[in-house]
Amino acid sequence: MDELLEKLKRKEEILWINNKKVNNERMEELESIPKNSILDAEERLNRFSDYIKICFSETESTNGIVESPLTEISNMKELLNSKYNSNIKGRLLLKEDNKLAIAGSVKARGGIYEVLKFTEKLALENNLLDVDEDYSKLFTAKNREFFNQYTMEVGSTGNLGLSIGMASSAIGYNVNIHMSADAKEWKKRLLRENNVNVIEYDSDYSVAVKEGRKLSQSNPKSYFIDDENSIELFLGYGVAASRLEKQLNELDIVVDENNPLFVYIPCGVGGAPGGITYGLKELFKNNVHCFFIEPTKTPCMLLGMATGKHDEISVKDIGLNEITDADGLAVGRPSGFIGKTIEPFLSGIFTINDSKLYEYMRDLLETENIFLEPSAASSFEGVVKLNKYENMKKYIIDNNLDKVMDNITHIAWGTGGSLVPEEIREEYINTFIED
Ligand SMILES: *Cc1c(COP(=O)(O)O)cnc(C)c1O
User: Has residue 25 got a pLDDT over 70?
Assistant: First the structure.
């Protein structure tokens, strides 16, 4: 443990393997979330689809379902193998949450789900709707006025604020987004253009959350979306799993003992990668291996899980300052419940230096013409380093993977990008930093 902490303090790139992961063929016994919760979330999103289609015209082509493409990126795979000697054999796919409607990031999954869940509850309680009716009937000026009595609030480093803000204001809510100091100017501007109140703080993410929570508690008609503890966000993220399964089927990609799935997801407070991991483990059990990626500057989930202290430890406690170029991942303290919930399921966590975020971002743009924001490009660290760490070699043996390495389907989770304005993209593309 001391050695691990020393490496974290020195901001070294590492792979941490979670030795509390268990064989989860008998998932039911391990589940800490009531069974069928994710299915229930998926059905709720389906009920809302006609309403979403009217609210957000960009979802017309997908019939009101907010989902992203799964894209094979063979050119990128070739480049990673030649440029970094990655030695990846199986297929490489990108889950393009950068293209998710409404929020342009993975936050569209959890954020919009939680806003809709609250909306459904209000609508049912106030007889605006019956659960078996067509939900598009909610879209009236009178109902907008009704929702306008309520205020949605969230603390955010940017992307969650965008997701909650855009969704809530479209429905008619008042919205207060409590933004930490690192939140980008363009995100605040976009929100303000959509009638969202942006409240700025001079401090980090945890302070923005705390202040937002406090303000919300003083208003009985305010609903606080609690990124550090929200089960609803978690379930909304989890719906990604069954949608991904369908997309894999469409590509004729089999997931079984001989054809495992490796998934690499950037991690901030843990909700998004945690929910997705939980959903995937429910579906694919031992045949899916989920890894998180965190910046070497803010490895909060790794620190929380490895020490077993979860949200009782912050990267500040080991001398790190919570500052990284990776938007959305600049989090010092992990969620209180995610680490505990995914302890039996998560395979491990890679850490990555900031300079490489821009490198992988440029690599993807050059080979596939796909733009990811730098934090999202961190997912490639898992692919690049898979065959490099000694502890991964042991993981492969321990999990009986040595004979099936060539058959692995690798999925890098592209967690954000499409809303980044052109001039900021240019800036990113021309950013070369030293660690
Ligand atoms: C928020 C975010 C993540 C991680 O999600 P958490 O729920 O904070 O762990 C990853 N990538 C991007 C682009 C994000 O905005």
Answer: no
